[in-house]
Amino acid sequence: FVLSSTNAVSLSSAGTTTLVGNQLALGGRTLSLGGFSTAVAHTLGAGDAIALTGAADFSGGLTLNGAGSSVTTGNFILSPTGLTISNGTVTVSGSGSVAAGASAVQVGASGVLTFNSSASPTLSCGAFTSTGTINNSALNLVAASGNVSAGGTYSAPKTNGTIRLTGNGTTIGGAAQIGN
């Protein structure tokens, strides 16, 4: 548990640090995280923030469910087995990406997914569902091998975003203009 800190809190490894047992408890603080792997399901609460300083694998799944909760990729890869942004923001920035494999990515009504890098950030997943906000301040790609349902807000310029269906028999539905 991060109880208090007047300086930056970091957990990183040149190799891989593996967490077993209980999820990280950030206490509304920011954790710089890199070279990290865990099969423990994680939920970020109000004010909890993760800033990647290396690759991070959340094979137990990652949920953002608190006002002000956030994950920022920077130049690194976030690999969650299931990503749910119920209330919070995931920012895919730098040359970073979100690689969820065949698992689902869901952006809830109070969730925000932001692409803001000139390096054309990507998100790959199985099914992709959004009833929240997708910010497209830079060219980006969502590659989904499952069904896609995009509602909520898909910010301008809408043509910055490309959704590519890669699976057989997948469908796309949108209540909002969703880009290319």
Describe what you observe in this structure:
The chain has 180 residues and is mostly beta strands. It is built from no helices and 18 strands. The protein has strands at residues 9-19, 30-38, 42-44, 49-52, 56-58, 62-72, 77-80, 83-92, 97-99, 105-115, 122-125, 128-130, 133-136, 140-144, 148-150, 153-154, 161-165, 172-174. The N and C termini lie far apart (43 Å). The model has no long low-confidence stretch (mean pLDDT 88).
Summarize this entry quickly.
The chain is built from no helices and 18 strands. It has strands at about 10-20, 30-40, 40-45, 50, 55-60, 60-70, 75-80, 85-90, 95-100, 105-115, 120-125, 130, 135, 140-145, 150, 155, 160-165, 170-175.
Helix content percent band: under 10%
Instruction: Calculate the terminal CA-CA distance, rounded to whole Å.
Output: 43 Å
The ordered H/E elements are: EEEEEEEEEEEEEEEEEE
Structural class: mainly beta
Q: What is the radius of gyration computed over CA atoms, rounded to a whole number of angstroms?
A: 16 Å
Q: How big a fraction of the residues is strand?
A: over 45%
What structural keywords apply?
18 strands; mainly beta; 180 residues; globular; single chain
Give the helix/strand layout:
Elements (H helix, E strand, L loop, with lengths): L8 E11 L10 E9 L3 E3 L4 E4 L3 E3 L3 E11 L4 E4 L2 E10 L4 E3 L5 E11 L6 E4 L2 E3 L2 E4 L3 E5 L3 E3 L2 E2 L6 E5 L6 E3 L6
Parallel strand pairs: 1-2, 2-4, 2-5, 3-6, 4-6, 5-7, 6-8, 7-9, 8-10, 9-11, 10-12, 10-13, 11-14, 12-15, 13-16, 14-17, 15-18
